[in-house]
C-alpha cells in the first residue's frame, strides 16, 4: 500500500543545520522528526562509544530494524549525517544541506570539536562527500542541494520543502472511487 505521507532525509556534514531544519519542518508540517543520533542512543542501535570521535559506533542493521515499521508508514523527516544506508523504497526526497567552509568552521569550533574531527568534517564538506553519496544512492530527481549559511536561507529552504510536500500530497492523493 502506498504511503499517505512522504519520507524526507535531511543530511549533510555536522554543523550545516540539519536538526534545526528538521525541528522547524516537523512543527510546520506535522511530519515526525526522526533524529537518528537520538534513536541510536535511545534504542541502543550501536556497538559502543568512540572516545576519539565522541560519538556512538552505529550498528546500521539494528538501526534499520528499529525504524523500519515507522518509516514504511511514511510521514518522517530523517535527520542524519549519512543517507546511503536507507533503502531507496523508503525515501521520497533527499535534502543535502551545504555551508561554506568558514561558516562550518565557526559552527564546529563552537561545538568544541577536536582538531581531527573538525578537519575531517571540513574536508568532507569541501569534497562534497555527502552530496555525492546522496547522488550515488538515490534517483537524481529526488536529491536536492540547499545552502544553509544564514537564517534567511534556512527559512527559504523550509519554504521550498513545504512546497515540495504540498505537491507530493497532490501527486499522491488516493484516486477518487
Short description:
The protein is of the alpha/beta class.
Q: Can you tell me the CATH class?
A: Alpha Beta
Largest sheet strand order: 2-5-1-6-7
Rg to the nearest angstrom? 16 Å
- Total beta strands: 7
Q: What portion of the residues fall into strands of 2 or more residues?
A: 15-25%
Main β sheet profile: 5 strands, parallel
CATH H-tier superfamily: P-loop containing nucleotide triphosphate hydrolases
- Briefly note the structural class of the backbone: alpha/beta
Report the span from N to C terminus.
16 Å
CATH fold topology: Rossmann fold
Helix content: 40-55%
**Any low-confidence stretches, pLDDT <50, length ≥5?**
none
CATH architecture: 3-Layer(aba) Sandwich
Broad shape: globular
Give the helices and strands as they follow along the chain.
Answer: EHEHEEHEEHHHEH
Task: Give a written overview of the molecule.
The chain has helices at residues 18-29, 36-42, 60-73, 101-110, 115-126, 129-137, 151-171, and strands at residues 7-11, 32-35, 46-50, 55-58, 76-79, 93-98, 143-147. It is an alpha/beta fold and 177 residues long. It has a single domain, classed as Rossmann fold, CATH 3.40.50. It has a five-stranded parallel sheet, sandwiched between helices. Strand 3 and strand 4 (55-58) form a beta hairpin. Helix 1 crosses helix 7 and helix 4 (101-110) packs antiparallel against helix 5 (115-126). It starts with 6 loop residues before the first strand and ends in a 6-residue tail after the last helix. It catalyses: ATP + H2O = ADP + phosphate + H(+); AMP + ATP = 2 ADP. Its EC number is 2.7.4.3.
Amino acid at each position: 500500500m502506498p504511503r499517505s505521507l512522504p519520507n524526507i532525509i535531511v543530511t549533510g556534514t555536522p554543523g550545516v543545520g540539519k536538526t534545526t531544519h528538521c525541528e522547524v519542518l516537523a512543527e510546520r508540517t506535522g511530519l515526525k522528526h526522526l533524529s537518528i543520533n537520538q534513536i541510536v542512543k535511545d534504542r541502543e542501535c550501536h556497538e559502543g562509544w568512540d572516545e576519539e570521535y565522541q560519538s556512538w559506533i552505529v550498528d546500521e542493521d539494528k538501526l534499520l530494524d528499529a525504524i523500519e515499521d515507522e518509516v514504511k508508514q511514511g510521514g518522517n523527516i530523517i535527520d542524519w549525517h549519512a543517507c546511503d544506508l536507507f533503502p531507496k523504497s523508503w525515501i521520497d526526497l533527499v535534502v543535502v544541506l551545504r555551508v561554506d567552509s568558514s561558516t562550518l568552521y565557526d559552527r564546529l569550533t563552537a561545538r568544541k570539536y577536536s582538531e581531527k574531527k573538525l578537519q575531517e568534517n571540513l574536508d568532507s564538506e569541501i569534497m562534497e562527500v555527502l552530496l555525492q553519496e546522496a547522488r550515488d544512492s538515490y534517483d537524481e530527481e529526488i536529491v536536492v542541494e540547499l545552502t544553509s549559511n544564514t537564517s534567511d536561507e534556512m527559512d527559504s529552504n523550509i519554504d521550498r520543502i513545504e512546497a515540495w510536500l504540498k505537491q507530493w500530497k497532490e501527486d499522491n492523493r488516493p484516486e477518487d472511487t
